[in-house]
Write the structure tokens for this entry.
Amino acid sequence: RSIIAEQKKEPEMTVRYYISSADLTAEKFATAIRNHWHVENKLHWRLDVVMNEDDCKIRRGNAAELFSGIRHIAINILTNDKVFKAGLRRKMRKAAMDRNYLASVLAGSGLS
């Protein structure tokens, strides 16, 4: 796969190589790669942008994995809340500032 980044002054081409033992045609292999990155970007974009996961400095023991799981759970809980119509970032702020909203989200009463 080759990518041309034109956001910089000089266009920059990056080549990525993929290795697989699957017996796929070039089209099916390209589709599999695109689907993989679609899932990766959809999930990890929210974790990074909303939860600043890439800036997390937790490195001790298995704490990084535990906090990652907590972030996933928090995003799922806030995404499932249908009462407060807002983005994840606003829902996080509201949960931090409003104990009643936090309690209703944790109790699952915002599901409809």
